[in-house]
Amino acid sequence: MGYHILLNYRSNHSEAQVARELVQQHGVECELLPFDVASKAQTDEVLGGWVEANKGKSIAVLVNNAGIREDNLFIWMTEEQWKGVISTSLDSFFYVTKHVINDMLAARFGRVINIVSLSGQKGLPGQTNYSSAKAGLIGATKALAQEVARRGITVNAVAPGFIKTDMTGDLNEKELVNMIPMRRFGQPEEVAEAVGFLASPGSSYITGEVLSINGGLYS
């Protein structure tokens, strides 16, 4: 789509380099920003430092895509499992978006796209922490959308179901596909296409919405 990319990641340097090379093949720049989005201190230092050092530039599109799973039945869930999942999905939205939204308001344009989950829409057993985090992010999406709409900024969410990624690698795909009307897991590219649409001019009158990508599993 022609956007220059700031690519955040926490620790996987080798795969970040691969992603950077793939982005650059499209003739755009890709700058790596390694930091833990669940850490206010790291976010302030790295992202805040980038914003401060690049006064002539602005981030037009923000995709909040962080999330981890620490599944357990609630009665056995530890405080660490609760706080880790909540912080990675929900606190990160607050820390990162705070550094980006002011420039969007000044420019009177912006796209904030939050990656949530089917789990945050219907709740899934063993994922009280993850369902809570993503449901909270859906609420934040709807609230912030109303606050910034007058300034030409849209805030939307994308809610994937079962997508073939590292996060779902430990799940029993053969069993789970029987629950899905399309009888398959989704591909990352199918989620990316939806994110691209919400970043495009064609979505300029859509805000505060949650777009489900789940093969018909839940609507």
TrEMBL record:
It comes from the Bacteria. Pfam families: adh_short_C2. InterPro entries: NAD(P)-bd_dom_sf, SDR, SDR_fam. SUPFAM superfamilies: NAD(P)-binding Rossmann-fold domains. Belongs to the short-chain dehydrogenases/reductases (SDR) family. NCBIfam families: PRK12826.1-2. This is 3-oxoacyl-ACP reductase FabG. It comes from Hymenobacter saemangeumensis. The gene is fabG_2.
